[in-house]
Amino acid sequence: MTLFDRWICVDWSAASRATTGSNSIWVADTGGAEGGSPADVTLDNPSTRTAAGALLAERCSSEKGATLVGVDASLSLPATGLDRLVHPGAPWDDLVALIDGLVDDDDANRNNRFAAAAVLNQMAGRSDGPFWGHPPNQRHEGLSATRPPFPWDGQVEEFRACEASMRARRLRVQSTWKLAYQASVGGQFLMVLGWLRRLRQALPQIRVFPFDTGFGQAPRRGEVWVAEVWPGEFDLEGRHPVRDADQVDSTVRRLRSLDHSGSLSPLLQLPGEVDAAIALREGWPLSPALALP
Q1: Burial of 239 (0-12, 13-18, 19+ CB in 10 A)
Q2: 10 Å Cβ neighbour count for 230?
Q3: Whole-model pTM?
Q4: What confidence tens digit (pLDDT) does each residue in 103-140 have?
Q5: Residue 230: which of 208, 247, 245 has the closest Cα?
Q6: How far, in Å, CA of 135 to CA of 108, rounded?
Q7: How far apart are CA 69 and CA 27, in angstroms?
Q8: What would the pLDDT profile of 136-176 be if each residue is shown by its tens digit?
Q9: Domain-by-domain residue ranges, the chain?
C-alpha cells in the first residue's frame, strides 16, 4: 500500500513575463495518460503562474484518491526572521497572509516582488536586509544589492533549521532571503505563497505539509498534500533536454518510487533533535537526506 495514489511535482517560477522552456514553470504528473514524457508521466509547461494555478487547481480537484504535490520552492522563513515580520510565535498562516497582501502578480507574470521585499525589510526594522538582491537595472529603497552579514541584526539567521541540516549534509541549498542572481530562491518564495493561499481557500482538501498536517501523519482518501521538495537532491534521468523539465520528471518518479518502497513515510517524520514548534513555522521539505541519522 502506498500513502498516495497520484504524485505531482512543480517547478515554480518568479519570472516577470510569460515564458516557457528554461527557467519557467514545469509540472510533472503521474496521473495523466497522454503526452509528456514516457512511462505515464505527463509534462506541462504553462507560461504564467495564473495558468499554472488553474492547471493545478483542476488536477487537485479531480482526484478521488490521495495526491502528493511536491513544490520546488521555499515555503517559509527562519523563525528568527518570522518574529520580525509577524507576532513572535505566530503561525505560518500569518506569514502567508502578509506576503499575499504585499505581492502583486498579474495574468502576464508582471509582479512587484522586489518592492514587496523592500517593504518587508522595513517591517523587519532596518533597510539593509534580511532580504537582499535585485537586478542591476532596478533600485528599491530598503533593498540592498549585496548580501548583508548574518545573523542579520545579530539575531536573524540566514537559514531555516531544515536548510542548515541539508547544508551540513553537503546539499547546496540557498537562503530564502536571496532574491536575485544564480540559484536565488527568495523570488519563488514570494511568488508561491499567494497561489498556495488561494488554492487552500478554494479546495478544502488541500493540506500543506507540515503546517496543516503536523508530522507523522498519513493522508486520508481525497486529500491533497502540498509539500516542499528540493529536486537538486535527486539524480536526473535525462528524459528531457530542458533541465527544469528533467528535474520535475525525475523528482516525481523518485517520489512515486519512494512511496512504493515504503521509504516516503519516514520523510513525513521529524527528526528527534529538531524543535517541532520551530519546524511547524519554518517548514520541512520531503528530503531523504533529512531522514538520515
Answers
A1: middle
A2: 25
A3: 0.95
A4: 999 999 999 999 999 999 999 998 889 999 999 888 88
A5: 247
A6: 19
A7: 10
A8: 888 888 999 999 999 999 999 999 999 999 999 999 999 99
A9: 6-74+196-291, 79-168
